[in-house]
Design goal:
With 106 residues, the protein is mainly alpha-helical. Helix content is 66%, strand content 0%. The chain has five helices and no strands. The N and C termini lie far apart (43 Å).
Length: 106
């Protein structure tokens, strides 16, 4: 019985670790695939222009809410108009994965 619990616990830890790594990898892949890098830099730290924000290390909820607001049109100031076309290609689950990845960067 104790062996079964140990195997179950070990399996759970491995699965959770894999899911965590997968979400991070998916966020990085989405950041690239959705062309976020073209304005914000491949490392999310070196934007194309100084007026574009650095996204690396941004608070997850803040980044997610900004993406949602840009997509919905609730945020329509500054460079939001340029972002609306890109955000039309990103669904909410993908936004969450990108926000998770960005928040994990230093």
């Amino acid at each position: 019985m104790k062996l079964n619990k140990t195997i179950l616990l070990t399996s759970s830890i491995v699965l959770l670790s894999a899911l965590s790594t997968s979400a991070s990898a998916d966020g990085a892949a989405l950041y690239s695939a959705k062309t976020c890098w073209s304005c914000h830099g491949k490392d999310a730290k070196t934007p194309l222009l100084p007026l574009y924000p650095k996204l690396a290390g941004q608070n997850r909820d803040y980044a997610l809410n900004q993406m949602k607001d840009i997509k919905s049109g609730a945020r329509n100031n500054g460079m939001a108009a340029a972002m609306q076309g890109v955000m039309g290609l990103v669904n909410e689950a993908e936004m969450g994965e990108i926000a998770d990845w960005l928040s994990s960067l230093k």
